[in-house]
Write a structure and sequence with these properties.
It contains 4 helices and 4 strands. The chain is an alpha+beta fold. It has one domain: Aspartate Aminotransferase, domain 1 (Alpha-Beta Complex), CATH 3.90.1150. The protein has a 4-stranded antiparallel β-sheet with strand order 1-2-4-3. It is globular and about 35 Å long. The termini are far apart.
């Protein structure tokens, strides 16, 4: 789990195989997911379960999955739709790279 992965800047939340094929929940360690999300354009993403969106607090779902608060605060859930294209995925990953790049 996340707690056993020291030095990692990104952590996959949830089971590696038993998961929805169109959903990815990843923690950006040392970041606040809501702040990253504000800078993303065109991403189908959320920082918590739908009923907890907008709060910087560990979602009950992540808590139930055993994600520690220090990792959960940086969690973002990305969802792909039936019509999501590779170009759209590439655009979001490029934006993330720019947002997460070290300053300086």
């Amino acid at each position: 789990g996340p707690a056993t992965a020291p030095g990692r800047s990104r952590l996959l939340n949830g089971h590696r195989q038993h998961r929805l094929p169109n959903t990815l929940n990843v923690s950006f360690v040392g970041q606040v997911g809501a702040e990253i999300l504000q800078r993303l354009d065109g991403a189908a993403a959320s920082t918590g379960s739908a009923c907890h969106a907008g709060r910087i607090k560990l979602s009950p779902v992540l808590k139930a999955m055993g994600v520690p608060p220090e990792f959960g605060i940086g969690a973002i859930r990305f969802s792909l739709g039936r019509h999501t294209t590779d170009v759209e995925i590439d655009a979001v990953t490029e934006q993330l790279a720019g947002i997460l790049a070290p300053a300086g």
